Amino acid sequence: MRPSLTAALALGIVFGLTSLSLSQNDDVFSFIPDGGRTLLSGLVEAGLPDIALNEITTGEKSSQEWLAFLDESMASVPAVAALDDYQRQTLADYLFYNAPIGTEMTAEALPMDGRDMTLRYCQSCHIVTVVITQSRAREAWLGTMNKPSHVEIDLTPEQREALADYLVVNAGIPIEEVPPELRAGGASY
Ligand code: HEC
């Protein structure tokens, strides 16, 4: 284990209650990239053509197929063209787990995304920094979530996979981008 990670864990365990009291909507977490719920509701708000809406409410595709669908939509849908590669991948993964979507596609009605799960389930025992600064492969994320220390977390196997996919694309955030109050040991971390 890297020394910085050990420090983050120690601090997280000592100050675990502090991080628990931080709400999901607190601005301090704004550096953590949007998940599929926010990306999709943003697209719907910006305006998606009926054909794309129809695809999302009726279609079932692999992540790769959703990504191809989004890539194709870039030419005709400015809001899709405005997404970067990471955001398109994040949204494609979200659609894989959640489409066909039966609910209203608002931020309030859509199912949780990987960012939501991270904030809700990954900071009660340690600081969220332990999670979002790690750059890992899918199997490594799933491996951690299957450890005895994590197996009791109230996420289904499918939610764990969705969370792993989100983290593969969006974690590995450099410590410099993490707000100081979430950095274990402050300047030395
Ligand atoms: C019930 C308490 C608890 C919760 C909730 C929790 N963790 Fe942990 N986590 C630990 C403990 C204890 C360690 C250090 C010992 C270990 O690795 O088993 C740790 C260490 C880690 C590590 C670093 C070491 C490793 O094995 O990779 C990562 C990454 C991690 N957790 C990810 C997560 C993620 C992702 C979530 C949310 C799904 C989460 N944790 C939620 C208890 C928790």
Written overview of the protein:
The chain is mostly helical. It folds into two domains: 3-33 and 113-188, no CATH class; 36-98. The protein contains eleven helices and no strands. It has helices at 3-14, 16-21, 36-46, 50-58, 63-73, 78-81, 85-98, 114-121, 129-132, 138-145, 157-170. Helix 8 packs across helix 11 (157-170). It starts with a helix and ends in a 19-residue tail after the last helix. Mean pLDDT is 88; it is low at 11-22 and 185-189. The structure holds heme C (HEC). The site of heme C (HEC) has 16 residues, from helix 1, helix 9 and helix 10.
Main β-sheet description: none
Question: Which percent range describes the beta-strand content?
Answer: under 5%
Helix content: 40-55%
Number of domains: 2
Q: What's the overall geometry?
A: globular
Number of strands: 0
> Would you identify the regions where 5 or more consecutive residues have pLDDT less than 50?
11-22, 185-189
Radius of gyration, taken over Cα atoms and rounded to an integer in Å: 17 Å
Counted by DSSP, the helix tally is 11
Bound molecules: heme C
Element-by-element helix/strand order = HHHHHHHHHHH
What would the average pLDDT be, to the nearest integer?
A: 88
What is the CA-CA span between the terminal residues? 14 Å
Which structural class matches the secondary elements?
mainly alpha
